[in-house]
Amino acid sequence: MPNLELIQALSGHKGIVWNVSWHPQGKIFASCGEDKTIKLWSKEGQEWTIKTVLVDGHQRTIREVAWSPCGNYLASASFDATTAIWDKKSGQFECNATLEGHENEVKSVAWSPSGQLLATCGRDKSVWVWEVAGEDEYECESVLNAHNQDVKKVAWHPSLDILASASYDNSVKLYKEDPADNDWSCIATLQSHESTVWSLTFDKTGERLATCSDDRTVKIWKEYKPDNQEGVIVTDRESVWKCVCTLSGFHTRCIYDIAWCHHTGFLATASGDDIIRIFKESEDSDPNSPTFDLVCTKLNAHSQDVNSVRWNPTGNKELLSCSDDGEIKIWSFSSD
Amino acid sequence: MASRFSGALQLTDLDDFITPSQECIKPVKIEKTKTKTGAKIKIGEDGYFDVSSGREQKLQKVEITLADCLACSGCITSAESVLVTKQSQEELLRVFSERKYTDNKGVSKDVSLIVISLSPQPTLSLAARYKLTPEEATHKLAGYFKSLGADLVLDMTIAEDLSLLEAQQEFLQRYQNQLADPSSKNMPMLASSCPGWVCYAEKTHGNFILPYISSSKSPQQVMGSLVKQYLSRSRELTPGEIYHVTVMPCYDKKLEASREDFYSEMLSCHDVDCVITAIELEQMLDVSSKSLNDITGAELDWPWGALGEAPPALRRHIGTGSGGYADHVFLYAAEQLFGESNAQLVYRNLRNPDFREVTLEKDGKEVLRFAVANGFRNIQNLVQKLKRGKSPYHYVEVMACPSGCLNGGAQVRPVTGESGRELVAQLEAMYSALPLAVPAESKLVRKLYAEWLDGKDSDKARAMLHTTYHAVEKSDIALNIKW
Question: What is the DSSP letter of B440?
Answer without folding.
Answer: G
